[in-house]
Design brief:
The chain is mainly beta and 88 residues long. The protein is 0% helix and 31% strand.
């Protein structure tokens, strides 16, 4: 079965959900360790690959795409409710 998430670049601290992911679902991908979805994540949205501190840069495509506005747990949905625009 295909991986449920896609890590686009090796520097990324988020991945993209390739389908809807349910809270509590164990996600296996690539050759790395699995993670557990902390909450439900809609398809095409970001999931945190590790704990992110408030004010930490969100990295996708190997580039900064935003900054966390609160602490984000590994396996959480990363979106407008916990991420803002990148600071310059």
């Amino acid at each position: 079965m295909a991986d449920p998430i896609l890590v686009i670049h090796e520097k990324d601290n988020v991945a993209v959900a390739l389908r809807d992911i349910e809270a509590g679902e164990e996600i296996r991908f690539g050759n790395g360790p699995s993670i557990t979805a902390f909450e439900s994540i809609p398809a095409s949205h970001k999931i945190a690959l590790r704990d992110l501190a408030q004010g930490e840069k969100v990295i996708k495509y190997g580039e900064i795409v935003g900054t966390t506005t609160m602490p984000v747990k590994k396996g959480s949905w990363v979106h407008g409710h916990n991420m803002g625009a990148a600071d310059g």
